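Hi there. Long-time user, first ticket. I'm pasting a complex I've been working with (about 218 residues overall). I'd like to know whether the download I got is complete or cut off, because the file seemed smaller than I expected. Thanks.
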Amino acid sequence: MSSLLPMAITATLCLYALAMTLALVRLMRGPSAQDRVLALDFLSVVAMLSMLVLAIRSNSSMYFEAALLLALFSFVSSVAMAKFLLRGEVIE
Amino acid sequence: MSETIVAGLLVLSGCIVLTAAIGLSRLQDFFVRMHAPALASTFGAWTATLAAIVHFSVVEGGVALHFWLLVIVLALTSPVTAMVLARAALFRRRQAGDALPPPLSAGPGAEANAPAAPGAPEPIDS
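Hi, the file is complete. Here it is re-exported in full:
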């Protein structure tokens, strides 16, 4: 019973790593620039979720701030990149 | 009991995120591909956050509700990202001269994509 949670955490981290690898393949191979931005956004969402899993694993609530910052910065960077694709410049 | 719930939620979240990644890497067109990451940023994030809430509520005693903030931030930001990215993709593909459906409102930019406008609205294909 007590080894159920570590096993589940390892399995979840492996699934996340597999998902990040698939997204990385899309990031490398993506036919257009917007595909790469989408893959980068997905990568940062998965990184944020893995921060949550690491918080559960190490029993510390410190990872919460890291996850929150990751979510906010991924939003800002994705919108900036999309704006760059739309206009050719970020700040007009 | 709580360990079982946390473990189940975590593995469910991993499976959902993997499904989203498979969709991201295997779907054919960009506009179809955009749907896949929404699965991770809604359902995957919800299950992982619920797992964290249950775990920290049991471990620390009391209710650790501050993890909801992550779900709220994701729910506020991911639609904005998707909208801006979709607009950028539409703009770029119109610039490239792809066959795309005409804009719904015939605004001042309607004559810019005149070759797409007179034809019947074709389905988006790559």
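A couple of notes from our side: Chain A touches chain B through 52 residues (CB under 8 Å). DSSP finds three helices and no strands in chain A.
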